[in-house]
Design a protein that fits this description.
Length: about 80
């Protein structure tokens, strides 16, 4: 899942080397934290959060196979 998130975000940002995805797993959910360069945050979130919502939709759909709920936080 980490590689999927990195693959989606990499073309959107100017500093792809600074993409950091961390994973925290709990008993009924998995939380992914996405960190990008401070100048790229707006590009990842998009106008009115549209890009962030699209990224989350793809990640949630890919995580449907697992029995745990998937969350994506953009830092």
């Amino acid at each position: 899942m980490k590689s999927l998130i990195e693959t989606i975000v990499e073309p959107l940002v100017d500093h792809p080397a600074e993409i950091v995805v961390t994973e925290r797993e709990e008993e009924n959910k998995i939380v992914y934290h996405l960190e990008v360069h401070e100048n790229d945050v707006g590009k990842v979130i998009g106008k009115n959060g549209r890009i962030a919502k699209s990224i989350r939709t793809v990640v949630y759909a890919a995580g449907m196979k697992s029995n745990k709920k998937i969350y994506l936080d953009i830092m």
